[in-house]
Amino acid sequence: MGTTGSTTRRRRWAALLGATALAVTAGGALAAPAGAVSTESQNVDFATHCIPPPIAGIPPIDGTTTAVVSVDNATPKVGDTVTVTYKVVTPAASNPTAISLPADIMTPTGKVTLGGAQTGSITVAGPKKNDPVAGNAPFPSFSMTGTFTVTAPGAITLSPGDYNIHTSYILELDTPCTVTNPPAPVSDTVTATDGTQTNTRAITLGTASGKPGDSVTVTGSHFTPGATVTLAGRSGATQTADTGTATADAQGAFSGTLAVNDKTTTGVVAYEGASWSDTKGAGPAAYVVVDDTPVPDNAQKITTTVKAGTLSMSQAGDAVQLSAVDFGQGGASDGALRTVTVKDFRGGPAGWSLTGKVTDFTGPGAKIDAGRLSWSPACVTKAASPSTCQAGSSGTVGLAGATLASTPNGGLTGGEFTVDAGLSLNVPAFTPPGSYSGVLTLTLT
């Protein structure tokens, strides 16, 4: 009986340890992680609300977390991928018992909040690795890493966000810790640059229309001084046989004429070099050939008009039921996005992008973090569509969102497309039983 009672108490202490290991409070100084080059990283303190697993039998813990966020590149360019490290510093809280906590039983995950020139959040995760904790000794610090792609130039701030630690010691336990007054203070800042040389070349036309064979005056600016500039007609994305040349002066300006004969002409371009280049060209400037060819005797001229439509989407339902998971096991709760149909009937040069973001999944007194939902997009283009649909990357959806599908810009875009995605919600093992729901919002631009 004595042995059984001791074992029971030990197991309860183990459960308690698995919970309190996540309830970090104030800590001490911290050096920047290896590889981080930012010199602006600094420890910050923020109020934290931690909810131990119900089995621990202890109330929520409100304390102070000390953390630091650092990056591997403090001066990225737009399009660069930046690695972010979120470290929770050595907490002031200690092991409340004389029982030692084993090594390698803690697996942390969390969020880093972006602000300034780029907003959103980054999902970070750490390895299942920690030093043993002696009885009544302080709990160890832990680090999590993740990446984000820079999408805008300017100063981008990084603040520590919510975190969760999964412990595997006799029982599988989760303790989520949230920022009480988000966002937490800024811990690091990166300054992003555009990374590309802006093409400022520009052209204007003396008139926007003319009869077949008429010449149009083309005026240009910001070209390379002394460069030979080709003037050319465009029919959609295709260059016509109508071409001419001009020479840029010492200030990079020119004025030339182009005879336009092709009746299908929709615009005029000007460029340096042997062929068109986005980096050394300007235009197209809109131009229309007015066909005033007389109608022969005993004939009728027949004209039709193609009207531009709109960009729209529809979906095959507004509810998705994911598969159930077992309490104590958790894991992947799978399903499929309701098929989305995108119709691009604008008939212009612009492509489109379909993105989605999801809220946290709320249930009976608990929630499942939005960052646990991932998808595997797929996109099919209807035959004869001018554009080709590109599926987004598989991965996390989360609060910040991700791209589901898109089409690129082009000379003439459009078509009809069907978009699908496999969905998977990674449910923590000991999530309280019940139904959890989140809202996935799709945006077409």
Defining key terms:
single chain; 445 residues; mainly beta; Immunoglobulin-like; six-stranded antiparallel β-sheet; 30 strands; disordered N terminus; signal; TAT_signal; Beta-xylosidase
* Beta-strand residue fraction: 35-45%
Number of strands: 30
Helix content: under 10%
* Mean pLDDT level: 82
Shape: elongated
Please, could you describe this protein's structure?
The protein is mainly beta and 445 residues long. The protein folds into three domains: 2-192, no CATH class; 202-289, Neocarzinostatin-like (Immunoglobulin-like, Sandwich), CATH 2.60.40.230; 311-444, Immunoglobulin-like. Helix content is 4%, strand content 44%. Strands 1, 2, 3, 4, 5, 6, 7, 8 and 9 form a nine-stranded antiparallel sheet that branches. Strands 19, 20, 21, 25, 27 and 29 form a six-stranded antiparallel sheet that branches. A hairpin with an 8-residue loop joins strand 16 (267-272) and strand 17. The relative contact order is 0.11.
Summarize the entry for a quick read:
This protein is mostly beta strands and about 450 residues long. It is about 5% helix and about 45% strand.
Outline the secondary-structure elements.
Layout: H1 2-20, E1 44-50, E2 61-71, E3 81-88, E4 106-116, E5 120-125, E6 142-149, E7 154-169, E8 171-179, E9 188-192, E10 202-205, E11 209-210, E12 215-221, E13 228-235, E14 238-247, E15 254-259, E16 267-272, E17 281-286, E18 288-289, E19 311-315, E20 331-336, E21 340-344, E22 352-358, E23 361-362, E24 367-368, E25 373-381, E26 390-391, E27 395-396, E28 402-407, E29 415-427, E30 440-444
Parallel strand pairs: 11-18
Antiparallel strand pairs: 1-2, 1-8, 2-3, 3-6, 4-5, 4-7, 7-8, 7-9, 10-12, 12-15, 13-14, 13-16, 16-17, 19-21, 20-29, 21-29, 22-28, 22-30, 23-24, 25-27, 25-29, 26-28
